[in-house]
Structure formats: C-alpha cells, structure tokens
# Entry
Amino acid sequence: MPTHSFFVKTDWPGLRNDIGTLNSTTLHTKISIPPEMEGPGIGTNPDEMLLGAASTCYIITLAAMLERSRIPKASLTMDSEGIVEYEKGIITYKKIIHRPILVLAKECTEKNLNTAKKLAVKAEQSCMITRAIKGNVLVELDETVYIQGKNE
# Structure
C-alpha cells in the first residue's frame, strides 16, 4: 500500500506565552496557548487543531460514504466539541463530541434514511483520525439525520 507524507513547519521564537507560527502547503496560522490555559489566545492551538482534524476527517468520510451509496443530501453541517480536563497540573484531552446534522434530499426514501443513519455511525468508526486517537480520546456521536421537509 502506498504511503503519504504530510508536512508542517512550526516556529516558536519565545517562551510559554509567546506566539508562534504553523505553515503547511495550504494552512498558514499563528499558534499560541489558549486563554483558558492562561495563554495569549492568538491564532489556533493544539487542542483546536486536534478537534479540527477529527471534525474534518469525520465530515469528509461521511460525505464520501453517502456519495458511494448514491444517497443525495440537501446539507451536511456539524458542530464538534473538544473537552479538555485540567487536574493536578496535568492537561488531558478527554473527549470529542461530534453533532452532525445530515439533511437528505426530498426524493430520498425511508431505506435511504436508514442507510444514511448507519453511515453516520460507520463514518466515525472509519475515520483515520478517530482510529489514530482511539484508546486515548473518547469520541462520541450525537447525530441528527432526516429527509428534507420531514421532521424539520
């Protein structure tokens, strides 16, 4: 199986509460410690980046599964939450909760709806990022799936 490499370049010119940069081919951002952890809160931070990786992996995986199953969607949006615990000087990323809202196209059938609900769960289990953090960070799914014009 072919392998792929992804690269980022980071620069941290100062101490704990300074501001650094992260650059990749398509992403260029400042980085710092978030204000919740007594940092300056400039740009993004590792906690937000992990949540972003898990969120984008899930939503892209689900969209691909829907396409392969030929289930048309009207929209697919999601809010995700990362829960970080700070106890006795140790910071631990405890849980990620994805809350996707999948609205299927009006022409979808109950069979499409049932398949889409199963795919919503399967997409989380298939996501490369979820598999990478498994055993370290709990990932929960609170999905809403319905056909446009029904249950709105």
Observations:
- The CA atoms of residues 8 and 27 lie 9 Å apart.
